[in-house]
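Quick note —
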Amino acid sequence: MRHRILAAGYKLFPFPLKGDADIGDADPACDLSCVINFYGRVDLLRGIVTSLAGQDYDKNRFEVVLVEDRGGTEEGRAIFREFGPVLNSAYYAVGEKFGVMGYARNLGLRKTRGKHVLFLDDDTVIMDRGFISKLMDEFGDGEADAVIPRGGASYCLLQGKYSFHDPYYPSNRCMAYRRETLRDLGGFVDEIIGQEDVEFAVRLTAAGKKVRRSQRAGYMHPPLILRSTSKAAAVGASFAKLRNRYPFPIWVMLLINGSRDIPKLICPFSTKYRMQGKFSLGFMLGILYAMTGKKLEYN
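Predicted structure written out below.
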């Protein structure tokens, strides 16, 4: 329903579809670039990189691009050196705009060489040695512009039996694109602190690109657990600042979409609803901070 509303809105109020990344040509010898953004948390990072190193896909046909925030750490660089002998890999440290995911994702994207690009989080879990092979098969018929692997929850025992995970949420925790698609849309918006993938999905949908939901390629990721509203507020504030990129009706639609789950806060029996409501509340607070000029503390 939201996709249809957005498509209709774009026809009525067209807007530029380009993000902020200039993306070069692919290396014909590289089928896939796996971009992992992280900061510290090398225990988690080692897990996903180990999974990539264990894939049955030809190691000469894909690469791993590590992008570490806040100038990088020696521990992060050590992971790069550790896996250097078994993976085509590169390491880059974000030197400015710390904590801004749109900028960090674009930095990694600009460094890729693959004909396809897979974005991953450091806490994404891939158990299937055939994951990349299955993912590349999804692009094989030339019809898909992007592929969302099927997601499930990991670490759910941290919060009792809470294991909610939208299996096909368009998220950079695990989503792949054709290089031409990313180039057509100019990658991500540099100034977005978080949920840069949601803003990108708006332009992806408006452009009429085809997204395939994979039944074969799967991954796991921790469910949404918010300790505070600070990150959600930072996301809301960055979306509020997109006013210059979108026509007013589309911009309002984006803000309403991010705040739509606030009523779920009052649900006493569902952790899923409470977490969704808490995020929407933080998102709305971020909008108010941006509109009133109030300083927002977020690390």
